[in-house]
Every structure is written in C-alpha cells, then in structure tokens.
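1st attempt posting a full record on here, be nice pls
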Amino acid sequence: MIPVGEIGFLRAPEQSDLKWLMHLENDMTLWYVATTKEPFSTLTMQTYLARHQSIVTDQQLRLVLEVDGDPVGAVDAFDYDPTVGKAGVGIILEMKHRGKGWSKLMLEAFENYCAKVLNIKNLYAHVPLHNEPSLALFTGSDYTIVGDLKNWIWMHGNHDDVRLFQKLLE
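the predicted structure (as tokens):
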C-alpha cells in the first residue's frame, strides 16, 4: 500500500471493489476521457479483477484510493512503455471528495511510486479544455503544457480539444 498524505492509501483493486468499480466504469459521463463507449458487465469486471497481473504484462495499472476503509478514487497508468520509461496518467475522485486537495495528494503519491518503484521517468496527461479542476491540478503539480490537441475526444455529440501535459520525474 502506498500512503497518500494523512488521508489514506493507494492499493490494488480487489474483488470487494466490484460494485464501486462497476459504478465508476459504467458512468457514461466519464467515457469521454477513455476509449470506453459501452457498459461493462459484472462478468467482465470480475474477470479483470481476477486476471490483472502487473503493469509489465498489462501495460496499464489502476490503483484505488482507500479512505477510512472505502474506495473513493483511482489513479491509472496507461500506455506504459518500459523501454522509454513513460506512461499516461489519469485520475478520478468521487464528486463528494473533490475540492479537498485529495487529487493532488493522490497524484504526488502516484508520481513517487512511478519514479521510485516502476522506473517511470515521464508521465503525460490529456485533459479536456473544459475540465478546469483537472487543468488546475496538473498545472499546480508542475506538469508542463506541451500543447493542445484539436478534436481529440468525443463528448456529448461533439469533438472537444484536450491539453497535453508532461512531467519528467526525478
């Protein structure tokens, strides 16, 4: 388990997280930031939880933020390239826990884990231009704005632009 400030810790997803993960993955309002465009079945999620092995074999990693015994958020590494030492990063926090600084704490803990354990030296994030809290999170976490990608995501029947952020880890 990876400590996240004084609020909780990051850990691997467990079978006991199934209901929470189903809600997260099947929330259509979040699909625009992923390639997901259809609901996941319970069997699909159970299989994912049972077979997920490691970032090396799956080229992705999800860690769950647990606070007071409950899952409240997640941080993902995706598009992992061990040769170059890079990965994309995505972060989600339940609505009722936003605005408390927890996303920044979660991102800092994840970055430390990536740098010191996974030997990832380069993280990047695609943030929709309308997502002001996430733009502020990555800007405030010393990510460099690399540029904007036009028509990069499909949201509510329209294409939307994203800002590309990058951070070189120590």
